[in-house]
Amino acid sequence: MPSAWLGVVAPTLATFNSALILWIGGIRAVEGHISVGLLVAFQALVTRFTAPLTRLNGVAGRIQDFAADVARLKDVENFQADPLYARPGGGESTRRLHGHVELENVTFGYSPLDQPLLTGFDLTVGPGQQVALVGGSGSGKSTVSRLISGLYTPWDGVIRIDGRRLEDIPRGALAASVSFVDQDVFLFEGSVRDNVALWDPSIPDEAVVEALKDAALYDVVTRRPGGIHSRVEQDGRNFSGGQRQRLEIARALVRRPSILVLDEVTSALDAETEQVVMDNLRRRGCACVVIAHRLSTVRDSDEIVVLQHGTVVERGRHEELVARGGAYAALVRER
């Protein structure tokens, strides 16, 4: 705030001084008390005198910027290292996981000053199973997906994959085994293959084709000049919203993950295409955690977990939950 005030006050005073000198000096010069040369000389003298003060104001602003930069550096130095980068490496770092996910009594929040968003959360997903998370906005669904993906570290409780604590799993194994797709679609200028394989030459074209087929996009791509090498504009502007989502799904599938986390990734698909994609994901046999606003997406899941304010209020299959007439049945009626 002081720097902002100085930035306004100093130029204003300099302008006011110049105007005052010209006004009074002009009157005195007209009356013959001083010469025009003396007025010009005095104006130049005042300008030379005020220029260092104006520059001093700039120095004060730079000092404040420097202090802010130093504070940021200190914050980075003193902040605890991200557990993701503290995980072990080694020869087994790329060994693929089987895909048995377990969250036990997990508590998590975004600020230690607020109440935790999730409290005592439990979840188990096995290979080939599909578990759906449903609930209103702010219920904690997306937070769970990021915890499973290793993007967040729980405050309390434990997350295990294949019986191993998540923080003990090498980074390479986690990256090779877990694919996370959220609502934000990021496509780059290049080819379809580039966007699916992310410029990884070790991924064969066959794997790209298989991923596109499972994402129900292969027929669309083959109709374009160049097939999988056809052009994608920045942000996928030459694809529709549903096609962009399916490209993102294909990117997640191309490395054949054993754990797949999908956060509202079929919102732009029609019901028929969405069902085809979900059936293809089932056939892949990976552990799948699905978050969807449209309940038709999750009705065939092995388990549906209903969240309210970070707490599990119901869990079971679609038919069971509808028959209970509880929170899930209310969501079905609303949508």
What's this, in brief?
By secondary structure, the chain is α/β, with parallel strands linked by helices. Helices cover 45% and strands 18% of the residues. It contains eleven helices and twelve strands.
SSE order and pairing:
Blueprint: H1 2-31, H2 36-78, E1 101-108, E2 118-125, E3 130-135, H3 141-148, E4 156-161, E5 164-165, H4 171-177, E6 178-181, E7 190-191, H5 192-197, H6 205-214, H7 218-222, E8 231-232, H8 241-253, E9 259-263, H9 271-284, E10 287-291, E11 303-308, E12 311-316, H10 318-324, H11 327-334
Parallel strand pairs: 3-10, 3-11, 6-9, 9-10
Antiparallel strand pairs: 1-2, 1-4, 4-5, 7-8, 11-12
Helix pairs in contact: 1-2, 6-8, 10-11
* Global mean pLDDT: 86
Instruction: Specify Rg, calculated over alpha carbons.
Output: 31 Å
Count helical runs. 11
The CATH topology of the largest domain is: Rossmann fold
Give, in order, the helices and strands: HHEEEHEEHEEHHHEHEHEEEHH
> What's the level 1 CATH class of the largest domain?
Alpha Beta
Q: Which structural class best describes the helix and strand composition?
A: alpha/beta
Largest sheet: spatial strand order: 6-9-10-3-11-12
Q: Report how far apart the termini are.
A: 50 Å
Largest sheet: 6 strands, mixed
What gross morphology would you assign? elongated
Using the 3D structure, state the CATH architecture of the largest domain: 3-Layer(aba) Sandwich
Number of DSSP strands?
A: 12
Number of domains: 2
Strand fraction: 15-25%
- Helical residue percent band: 40-55%
CATH superfamily of the largest domain: P-loop containing nucleotide triphosphate hydrolases
Which spans have pLDDT < 50 for at least 5 consecutive residues? none
Domain ABC transmembrane type-1: 1-65
Family: Belongs to the ABC transporter superfamily. Lipid exporter (TC 3.A.1.106) family.
Subcellular location: Cell membrane
Membrane topology: Multi-pass membrane protein
